[in-house]
Amino acid sequence: xxxxxxxxxxxxxxxxxxxxxxxxxxxxxxxxxxxxxxxxxxxxxxxxxxxxxxxxxxxxxxxxxxxxxxxxxxxxxxxxxxxxxxxxxxxxxxxxxxxxxxxxxxxxxxxxxxxxxxxxxxxxxxxxxxxxxxxxxxxxxxxxxxxxxxxxxxxxxxxxxxxxxxxxxxxxxxxxxxxxxxxxxxxxxxxxxxxxxxxxxxxxxxxxxxxxxxxxxxxxxxxxxxxxxxxxxxxxxxxxxxxxxxxxxxxxxxxxxxxxxxxxxxxxxxxxxxxxxxxxxxxxxxxxxxxxxxxxxxxxxxxxxxxxxxxxxxxxxxxxxxxxxxxxxxxxxxxxxxxxxxxxxxxxxxxxxx
Length: 354
Known about the structure:
It contains 17 helices and 5 strands. The chain has helices at 2-10, 29-44, 54-57, 76-90, 121-132, 139-152, 157-169, 173-186, 191-203, 207-220, 226-241, 245-257, 270-283, 287-303, 312-325, 331-340, 344-353; strands at 14-24, 58-59, 64-75, 95-104, 107-114. The chain has a 5-stranded antiparallel sheet with strand order 2-3-1-4-5.
């Protein structure tokens, strides 16, 4: 057993690791102290078995640590050392967040969001405000807390982004847009801010700008993050509505083929995505694949029956048409059920056949 353990230590298994994010310290003593402590701990505690040298990630002049996105092979020890070191340094930060993932063949083995957790006012008020965001009736309290965080640290990208969502909920669209712009100004890689700004553009009827920001959301986020797939779905639906089928198909296929946890907000969009993608496949005369997508839409409909965009009758009718055009049996049963459920088009088809 000892021999096997020694062999494992001498021949560590390497996994895919991803680091991405930014931690804000402000200029002056804080960033200088963080830089020095990072160097000391990397050398003395971890014997330099970490993934980043201080000079690779620190911007002392402007007061932050940034890893735009790094995908690299790492063994579990080096990943853990790096994670622990960044968590330690984060206690001196005033704002920001950094994600770390360890992945084996597509399966997430470890995931951690590194954030400041100190007793600094900017930190505590941001955490308080973030907790209140989304709580009905607590919107003004959330804004007050986020205001305090921003007052204490002006470049608090996450506080601006969270306040933007609260303002959007309160229908203060001008203020929301200003907040999202500020958030992006202070952290151009904040994917959530781009997604929020896209929602404001949609409200204002500026679809081209919304599409641009949804594309930036996808670019700035990882496929491991919920917002990445929220943006892909919304971008695909917008392209579909604009009859830009090539662009819509690209986004919707990726979304439809993705497996989501039932707790993920994207899980409920499976129905719509499969239906829209099925309609595109019908126009492309890929009838077998279209029928399969309508099957998936029906299965998802049973789990989430409410939709303002289409009905079960709509899906059944389209599946029936796909089966017919693919030369498959059973299409008439779908048309009949669609007619029973109120589809006028299905009723016309039955009358014509009679």
